[in-house]
Amino acid sequence: MTRPLHHIGYWVSDLDTAVEHAVRTLGVGPFLVDRHVRFASFTLADGTEIADPAYLDHTAAFAAWGPIVLELAQVHSVHPELAAAYRIRTGDVGHVSWVVEDLPAESARLQALGCPLIHTANLGQVNVAWHDGGSLFPHPIEVHRAGAPILGMHARLSALADGWDGADVMRPIAP
């Protein structure tokens, strides 16, 4: 079964600068921004529940880039073990992402392929499993459970881009 990319994410040191650069050089935009992403739950692979928002405090910006979504993410604080697992280095691909109906089955499949689970997270209607890239990628993999917010994201971003005048490059993500 083919799993097409939903989005590709990059780590950036300054989100405002990175967004302006993407708008200018790639012609993408506007970006929807989720400042200081908050998790309803965040569970490490060993079952440890993380409640401290500073464990991973980041801001993420999303724009349609052709048939996929571009994510630019700036980390404000991160636990050193998670930073190592995510391989956070400014300018590097942070992760690739795809969407599946059965998140536990896809997570098990990736683990069987040698891509160990890093953590799972829930952001309300958005559920994800992050895996090490193993032998597949030199960066993590983020798998999303299919749901309205994720399945409609590209269409929403593309609609914003249609007729966009280049102003107001970053807009808050509305619930």
Automatic annotation (TrEMBL):
Residues 4-146 form the VOC domain. It holds the Pfam family Glyoxalase_4. Signal peptide: none annotated. PROSITE patterns: VOC (PS51819). This is VOC family protein. It comes from Jatrophihabitans telluris. The lineage of its organism: Bacteria, Bacillati, Actinomycetota, Actinomycetes, Jatrophihabitantales.
